[in-house]
Design goal:
Blueprint: E1 15-18, E2 25-28, H1 30-34, E3 37-38, H2 40-50, E4 65-68, E5 71-74, H3 75-85
Parallel strand pairs: 3-4
Antiparallel strand pairs: 1-2, 4-5
The structure holds zinc ion.
Amino acid sequence: MNKLCQVCHLHPFIGVASSSIGAMSVAYCQECANRLAEPEWGFEYLYCYVGYEGDYLADWVDTLTTFKANKYWTWPEWKAWRKQYGPKCPEIPIEDWG
Ligand SMILES: [Zn+2]
């Protein structure tokens, strides 16, 4: 069994908890827990599927971080990077909105 943190993939995890982004279980190390870090896929989910290209999200999202390229990124830092370098969000056909 892989016992590494599912955010930074560097340190052993200390426990599994629900992500603050949604009802998804994530194994966190102490450092990532202290930094309110979430896996980058969680940031991608917020960016494309909760907000609109990273905008129109609750203010508390700014307190989250993720781990990428060997460093922690705040949501505003990651969002700025994502807007400049990331791909366009997939378009969801309106009939799939439920
Ligand atoms: Zn970690």
